[in-house]
Specification:
single chain, about 140 residues, alpha+beta, two-stranded antiparallel sheet, 5 helices, globular
Length: about 140
């Protein structure tokens, strides 16, 4: 098993950070953080043993746009979506649920695909939700409708 990112992934990161950087009036920022994952604390737990869906991940690519001017909002969101789509071509559709992007581009706007990208066993979660909250008192992405 290799933990080295592909050339395509590195090229996409280079393009959207160096060649085509985030626009703005310098009151903005784009942070990209790479966290390698490995070791027995991650791999000793079964893929479906917890709700966490990223047990087989090799990396977390955490990227964050920020800006202070409302006039930069659309430009920055466009850059964010373009960066996301570029990374989608080189990574599996899996998300880190502590920083869940509500508009996860690879999930295609589908609530079901979004949950499958973040969690290990959506059917099990739906079953637990139905058993313990059949009337949907506690609203979540698991609540029908």
């Amino acid at each position: 098993m290799t933990y080295w990112p592909t050339d395509g992934l590195l090229d996409a990161l280079h393009k959207w950070t160096i060649t085509n950087p985030a626009p703005g009036n310098r009151a903005w920022g784009l942070g990209i953080y790479l966290y390698p994952l490995s070791g027995p604390k991650i791999s000793s737990v079964g893929d479906k043993a917890t709700a966490y869906g990223g047990r087989d991940a090799k990396w977390i690519i955490h990227y964050k746009h920020s800006w202070s001017s409302s006039s930069d909002h659309n430009k920055m969101m466009s850059h964010h979506r373009s960066l996301s789509r570029a990374l989608d071509q080189h990574t599996p559709c899996k998300g880190f649920y502590n920083y869940a992007d509500k508009d996860f581009t690879c999930a295609g706007g589908s609530n079901r695909k979004w949950m499958e990208a973040h969690f290990s066993d959506v059917r099990r979660m739906e079953s637990i939700k139905q058993t313990h909250d059949p009337t949907g008192v506690f609203h979540s992405r698991l609540t029908p409708g």
